[in-house]
């Protein structure tokens, strides 16, 4: 298929060299520093003051594009060269942002405008941007002086280094492990999975199947391999990654965890908070640490009874196999068997109905129905043959672009994410359109056939696409509050989790599914089984998420900071209260918990559950009004997706829903309360 060329100015990924990127970032830093050094006092006139703010936005726009490209390559095409360039630039970048965040004259310029009569005449988005900037100046230590100011800068630089090291250790530890498999160890695996493992074998130059810790490989073994010692071996390798319990102690993150926690607390104290969780919450929607803690524990009580029932069912089916001591490496395996028994549903049977190209086509037609937008693939240079570029059109006008890079491979960090590297913004050259990346670690295509996705992967794709729409459907022109910028972190997962509901809808699934060979859509009995199994183990899954969230909150509430043994004790205590399955002594889950040690979720992992309340409640309105109701879709687009950080998360929600959020819909969507509105 010949594609038309991209209409937006896209980066030349086929030509960009690391050296050029490095120079570009260095010149952004130098230009920014020059500007800050020359700004010694707030200018007199409001016009001059506003010009300064505009210049700050331009600097940020240039930096976020250059840095966005480098950090993207560092995440999806990681090698010694990208890593070196990235590492070399980190200290300078951190220093620049610290200088920016603590710049007194710049801060006063924002404050002047905020306090002047002209403020009320500014567009709403700009008013919000100014208010958020003032808050962020305070949280960056603008009020600090002398030694304290210097120390704050040192901590910021060190933390950015530690977070990068943490993430590299996880990637290296994941990639270092591989385990060749004999014929008799393949029992239970589907032909498709065996082909996948053979493909991994080829990557390791072996003519036999190989198990790796890449998620598709790990999941295939844990879910299907009959060989129990093999599952145990792989489980152990996975949960000891980057820890003292693994064979490769050079990737051990234990000391990093201690240092990160200690520096975060020190930073919080410099700003006048008595723990890091309070600092984290200062910019979030949730009112207080206590409120979050109560929210999580309350939700855990709702999940407990269903979870206990689910575990007893799991134990019962394992017992039929003669297993009386259900272990962590048994749970996925017997869950799959249980699902088969209860619903006659297996992930493997579904996969042929979910070829990736068809899923994408279906997803695009769903967002077209909901928001009236069209997605068109266009020709643009990419960093890897797996990556593709698309543009979003609204009534014939291109309004944004995105890249999809879906499959797991060597050199790519785990997980799935959306990252906006260019924001909507009014520039001197006109309106700049937003562009983002959406990245997954899905099961890659095997041989020449398109990738066959599991339903979980379909859900993940919808999730990331929800984030992408938030970035691209923004109608705000101010970079500080466009798209996901300026949106409280604990509300950012609203559009993403909201979008997941369409991966669970009967009508959507008809559009999404098409058998790879027969082209038939999902047969009625499989569709029914999938929908019936929707709440399968939702209690256990919720408790697991809550365990992570409570652990994150607890270790960031501690003062004094915890050492590694205390971190482990905290995790053990939470597990004792909330886990329904046993864990092993060697489990070092925390050592690869990149969300909180290398991502933006520190004392913020609860955000997933917090925003799920919002997403569920927002979807509840669609259930009332019709899930493809174009008017409701338009409202959601206008009141939630378009506004970015212009409105507070609560205001935006109320504008859409007509009232404050309620938890009822979430409980119903877990299958814990009756009254399904739209079966
Ligand atoms: Zn997300």
Automatic annotation (TrEMBL):
The enzyme's first-digit EC class, named in words, is: hydrolase
Q: Which UniProt keywords apply?
A: Hydrolase, Metal-binding, Metalloprotease, Protease, Zinc
User: What are the Oligopeptidase A N-terminal domain coordinates in residue numbering?
Assistant: 36-149
* Requisite cofactors: Zn(2+)
Q: Which InterPro entries match?
A: M3A_DCP, MetalloPept_cat_dom_sf, Neurolysin/TOP_dom2, OpdA_N, Pept_M3A_M3B, Pept_M3A_M3B_dom
Q: Please write the reaction equations for the catalytic activity of this protein.
A: Hydrolysis of oligopeptides, with broad specificity. Gly or Ala commonly occur as P1 or P1' residues, but more distant residues are also important, as is shown by the fact that Z-Gly-Pro-Gly-|-Gly-Pro-Ala is cleaved, but not Z-(Gly)(5)
Give start and end of each Peptidase M3A/M3B catalytic domain.
221-670
What is an example of a Pfam family matching this protein? Answer: Peptidase_M3
Report the co-factor binding details: Binds 1 zinc ion.
- Give the E.C. number(s): 3.4.24.70
Q: Which family does it belong to?
A: Belongs to the peptidase M3 family.
PANTHER family from the xrefs? PROTEASE M3 THIMET OLIGOPEPTIDASE-RELATED (PTHR11804), SACCHAROLYSIN (PTHR11804:SF84)
The name this protein carries in UniProt is oligopeptidase A
